[in-house]
Queue: 3 jobs
Job 1
Amino acid sequence: DTPQIEDIAGQVWFDDVVVSHLPRLDLSMPQAVNVVVVPEQPRLTMVLSELSSEQLTAKLEVIDLDGRRVFSDEFPAPRGRQQASVDLPVKRCGWYRAVLDILSRGRIARRQTLDFVIIPTPDAPAKPGAHAHGAPGTLLGVHLPSTSTEDLPLLPMMVGRLEADAAVLPIWNDHLTLQSAPQRLAAMRGVIEHMLQKHVDLVFALDRVPQELARSMALDSTGVFEMLRGDSRAWRPYLDELLVNFGLEISRWQIGDPRQPMSIAPEQLPHAVDAATRSLVDFVPDPSITVPWPLDRVPDPDDAVPSISIWIPHHVPPSSLGDYTHAPQSTDEVRGDSIMALLEQLPPSQYSSRQRLVDLMQRGLYAWREGFDMVAIEAPWSHDSQGRNRVMPDPAFVAWRSLAHELQGRTYAGELPVAQGVHCWFLRGDGARGSALVAWTDQALGSQPATLRVQLALDDVSVADACGNIQRISARDGMHEIPLDETPVFIRNVALELVQFRGEFAIDPDFVPAAARVHEHTIILRNPWDVAVSGTIRLPNDDQWQLTPSVQDFVMPARGEVKLPLNIIPQRSITAGHKTVYADVTLNADRTYNLRVQTQVDVGLKNIDLAASWVASPNPQTGKTDLLITNVVSNKGDQVMNLDVYMLAPGVSQNRRTIARLGPGETAVRSFRIPNGMAVLAGQSIRVGVEERDGVARLNRVLNITTDELPMQSSANR
């Protein structure tokens, strides 16, 4: 049907018209990439173009990653083309945003923002890429944007400041034409040569077809594989100069964009890859083709997929990243030496800068540990919206730089058991690259931070935060104490073997029955050194149990272990729950160490559960507040049991209750009422427990009676 066109008429009246002249404002830094390298001092330059005589005021504020104001100043705005500079007294490494407001009569007439980062001085000499010196491991890289020809010279500076091991470089952009191709390829030549000199592992990306070329070949812009299978005389002029100059140096090519749906079906990939290889082989002797692969499809032997690139959305949790590297490598047909992962960051509209930084660092660490050939993120910067040939670094810039700097030359060597929700990984260094730890917690932001308390070295250690700020930590009583939260920190100058030896000290089994008889256990010691070690282990006295033998000598081969006998006899008064076993060790390894190690065991009864609780109970007859103790006892065994439930409290006679013939799976409740108990026992501890009437098993727990009014109760569970 023919569309019906409707004419609409209308009129508008204006009561008042105001014509305002907005001042032109420019806020910049001497560094074109807005990256300040210590010991440089950040300096902001302001240029205000305003010809009127109205008095204007400039207000400058600088905020950090967490939105805290770190600098503020107010001064008369420079006039005309007059330039003003401000040296910022900001020295800590990190991401910052400068906000400059021009005020007219107390109102904001113009606002300009500028994002910048301060990073530590890079190591000298400049580090080579991980593969350049033969070190194994995952490359941390960056997927560069499809940049205009004018902005191409900024890319090597940003990649260098990022300390990235690798970069995926798009060769074309949408607006490339046959006429502009020589100019773009000439500019790109300088970019490529600069990054190769800095040992950046480059991957050329043909991720789109330029609009002009797509029209001439009747293709969609995503049809790169279709283009390569087409007439090479149509597309080779757009690429020849690059192939001639770098075909022998760069063999890795990414065909297609992993962020976009695949333009061809997976079963067509082998033929498409063969065609792409033949189209490049004249200039690239042995091209390595990487293709996008859907996240939800596991390659099978029939796919015969080449090296793959996977786009991993932000909703995939860090601990699940290994699912996407092990599955493809399980097939014989996959050339599994190259699985690239491109990590999506959390959207800035839904998460704070701190949350995005924490998530990126944790996901980057897990992806690095899982062994992808390369882990990359999209360029953590944006181009200046004012079109001034400048870039604005994102908060992700400092996080990814720290990961690239700290992980380069190191390999994952295990995890130090610390506490529930605390992660501490061993990072083994190669050669001049010293070993380190990386640690963080699962705690919610804003909660009380945890503390890593362990001997990490014989001397001071240094802690590098996510932005590269360094803090030296000295030992107290032989132990280093490092506060932790969700943001990973890197701990340098550690004696890795010493930390591993401490972390692998264990007692097997780690459950001790709460029965006053001999329980046979084993002390396990492992040798992380490449040489044989010997020493003596001493178990200090403890009033809750008897540990024998208290002194034992040992010898361990290089990378070996030793198992020593241990008898544990719990006292009847031992309290159920987590218990720490300490041992003093004199160790002869690469040097002599005198250290105290520790591990945890659980004390309890596998066939009896006891849940104890207390509550303040007003007594209407006496007008006082009694204390009501409730004990819930469950039989988890397969035998009928006769039990006694007891309570011991200061100044109160012992109370006992009997549970006769408690059958398997049955539960009984026994309570004790202490008259005026809140006045007598407030602020004190009482002991409750259950024991076998005709045995030695006894389960003890402690209740702390607090003076809190809401809630006026507490509990002790299994």
Job 2
Amino acid sequence: FFWEDFIFQFYPFYNFSTTSLASGELPLWNPYTFGGMPFQADIQSGVFYLPSLLLVPFATGGMLHFWYLEMFTIAHIFLAGITMFYCAKHFGLSRPAALFSALAYMLSGFAIVHMIHIVMIAQLAWFPLVVMLFHRAIHLSSFLSTILCGFILSLVVFGGHPQITFYFFFFLFVFFLYELYQTIRNEESFPTKKILSISIFAAGVILVAIGLAAIQLLPTFELANLSVRSEINYEKSLEGQLYWQQLLTLLIPKFFGTANQLLGDNPIRYWGPQSHWSYWETCIYVGICVLILALFSLSQAKKKSFVMFFACYALFSLLFALGENFFIHKFFFNVVPGFDKFRSLGRWSFFFTFSVALLSGVGLQQLLSSSKQEKFFLNILFSIGGITSLVLIGTQVHLWDGFISSQIATGAINMISPDVALPMVMNTIQSQSLVAFGIVLLSIGALFFLWKKNISANVALFLLLFVQFFDVYIFGFEQNNGRTNPQAYFSERKQLIQILKDESKEELFRINARVRGTLLMDRNQGMIDRIFLMEGYTPLAMQRVLPIAPTSDISYEMLNTKYRLKIDTMRIRGQLQRRMGLAVDPLYLPRAFFVYNAKVFSTAQEESLYLSNPAFNPREVVTLEESPGTTFEDRKSVV
């Protein structure tokens, strides 16, 4: 079973979307989360992502089985391989080299750790096709490629991850500038007409994409300004950033442990910088063969101009992901509009992954030909092998104990006693360094055979593909094999939910199923069972969920919250145990009722002061932020 955000966010989202569409309803509004909020406007809902319509026929009986969404995600991995294959061929790679690039891309560390994020996987699947068509559009002045690229780019937008989408547009802008530079550089006189043509077709792609995606972008921008993500400070933006020491994970991916579906039972828990989820946000592993071949592709930088561009963009992506550990992010955060809206800077590893995967195919093609860069290739092999050997020896003889202890004190497991944490961390480092050393030797051996051409090219290529697959399999085979069945997870309170649903047929009411960190039901359970919860889980949660009132209890009463979570502590057999249940709040207000007194406030501050006054009575007066254009009789409310 897929785990984490797949269960908590994306399955409920897709379940609500597909079941609504299957019943003939366009889900613009979601009344079952946070007391009600926009749904289609939340870009991660995927309502207008056209491939998601394939799921609609499988939504039966008011439910989409989670298995279909898992298969939908996996299908996008294969799609990523297909689009990368043709993108690599477009840049001049042979079929074997393009096949290797496709494998490197579709089974990269980024793809593996983000399988729980369908929105990222959907965008990963289409991106190579966008790059290929964009390049064709501006080079061939092709109207067809322009329209197709704009359409595919709109699918990327509908795919649902705003941060990656924004970075996509930035990438295309930089790619466009690079192509302009190459055009000017390769012409003796200033190529005015050529520059104008490239600019028009590049702009055409963006205009087509934004025009088609406007139905999503406009409501999303409006929602974003009202959400908890409307503004983040610089410190918040640094969450999920990469650290210099994590570059070591290019060779030893689990040096800092892992955060996977095993959760608390994980024998090699993530102990690196920040918290456990930083593991998947900062994953930069692409495989040893891919890394070596990508480095070897630099020997072709003078012959193939795109090699230098993608190599530089891969480096730029890593440096940007470093956040406060390098100057690039701070400059963009303070100067360039849009870059101050996002955190989890490690997601820049997407572009590193794409660039390195493409370049690895270039390196393989060069290796398959009569290479004249033998010394350069051997230097790369010796460097990779030497660095891994030094790390392995250093960990075995406890050379890095001081550094490791300092990392433990500030990392993801700093709450664990150093006496307990250090032996656990050392065991992880020593075992994973040994595993990585074995993978490095295997990879170097496969590439050496390919270089020496002691075996046939087909056998060597098969060996290389097998080694790359084996490498990423060892890295990620346990990452997403979750133990929690989503169907069973959302059925834990089946009897209680059925009682609430039956009662809601007679009366509309909301439910508060959370007290601080204690949950009676999943936060997005409302979208699964269509019950009105005050809880929810989405990055674009509204700033104003509860109305201002003298107390939080009154806030819930105003929002028709009939049932509140109650936690009792009792002593059973000498031990204190907690019991959870729902209790009726006798003071809750109906979903709708009449009042005949209204007060209009010109500023939000005045309104807030009035609402927080203990004398405020929501049963007799309503506050408005603008005049309704009519008057009310001053008499007692009629319920």
Job 3
Amino acid sequence: MYFLRMFINRVTILLVISNMIFSCDKEYHTSGSELLLSSALESKSFVAPVYSFQSKVDYFQTDGLPLLQLGKIHLPGLGITEANITAKLVLPQNPVFGNYTQNREDKVDENNLAVIDEKETVTQVYLEIPFFNNTDDKDGDGVIDALDLDPEDRDSDTDGDGISDYSETNNNLNPLSDDSDGDGILDDVDQDNKTYEHENKIYEIDSIYGNPKAHFDLKVYELKYFLSQYDPATDFQKNSKFFSNTDFFENGFFGETLHDAPYQLNFEELRFNYKEDDPETEDVDERETVETRLSPRIRVPLDKTFFQKKILDVEGETVLSNDDNFSKHLRGLIIKAENFDDDLYMLLDISNAIIRIEYDYDQVLDNNGTADDTSDDTTEKKSKTFLLSFGLNFNTIKNNNSNAQVDQEILASQSDKPSQNIYLSGNGLFSTLRLFEEEGQGDQVLDKIRDNQWVVNEANLVLYIDQDKYNPLEKSLFPDRLYLYKYDYGAPITDFSIDNTVNNTEKNRNKSIYGGILELDASDIPYRYKFRITDHVNRLIKNDSTNVTLGLVPSNGINIVNNRRAETVGQDFINYPTTAILNPRGVILHGSESEDGPAAAEGGLKFEIFYTEY
């Protein structure tokens, strides 16, 4: 009986506890089970409204840029752009030519009779403006990446002679030739390559558009307009601004012609040997040895007489005593390129541009043991080089748009009518975009999204190229990248700012999530550009941020998105991205009112939101 009662009591206790547990568990699962059902969360996409408006800047600020443009380029459907250069020259204060100041030369120096009239005479003057070039060599094997068989493997064998690029470079062989010394014996068996001399460095020239072999006339004139660093209209309190429509040549502010001749670009390294042989090195003739190597550049001779008069003949005078005096004495240069036989447009390294003045002067070589008598002194000609650098400079850029449709789109947009096409180019054509705004409904679309409490996972703005406007072979005409920003402020959108992605293998591919990069279709033809603007959209939805107008321009690079002043055709002054000014390329895209193209159902561009809905 005892064991029976014990069994009954234990069963009773277990039943009570089980009833309590199951009753609680049932209530718990009932209240939370909906959260775990797959049907409770649903991923969807929504094509939101977006409208494009065509615009143009009449002129923009071109001083203070990291590079200058020169040349002529024609973009199909976008017109012709021509660019010339105006620049101030800078020299050191009170320069000394030869060995002694002009003041010492003019006076008899009883303590040093070697001080004579040095008769400094200009022998050559050159204008030099370097090209931008790429000598990147990631693996350090002596072969630039552009020519390297494998840019990331220093043991690669680019010339296929059985010796690695790295070994050939270290052993004074040519890694780009299987017969470095050209004697008919291949490097891998040649026992004597001492006759091999290092050839010119090979450069990958950057930022040359069009036909690099085109012929044109290069002209250089004396500038007769004083380029003031500070604006007299502001009581010299602010820096002067110079704009693309400023043309001092056309307005007659030019003087002597310093160069006027046909020209063709040369992309070879420039090498110059020693001019004199050192008599103390009998086994070596220095005149056959390279003294100076210069990277590829525009290099043209200038009028020697002009620089003799303007520079060497005024040694010691007040015109060379400070920058302000010198700028009034020699105000600068105007550099023009004309009469092209084909398109050629150059972005030039103006920060390293120089005027190279080579001159001879007399120096006492031997006083024949009569230090007090200069009549029997022997003199010789010595040579020196004097450099003038470039100071304040700017571009004059002229645009000739032959497409009447562009003007019609601009006029329509000024009446608040969206555009059928989007025309973008470095010569001032740009577009503005409005998100979510259906005609006459303001931000009602945004309000509906907020009411539905969507969780936005991704938002993309996709812009399609109007491929019917192009020949498939014109791939080089398209901007490599576009730039999307807050139009009224000239500031980047947040997706640009927070994107820290870096690409060390391809140029201009940082911030790849933000995007705007040219994409090709299955036929390898330029197809579209896509921006991911998820954070921008989420801020509009969650934080009720202002739905600002966006600006769209071609981009030269995402590292130069600061702004320059510009005036639009509507005579509004705006902050215009520098990256657009420095990109000579252009593109025609489908606008929001396009009736064809890949996104015809939503207009010619697509604003797609991927979201999760509860």
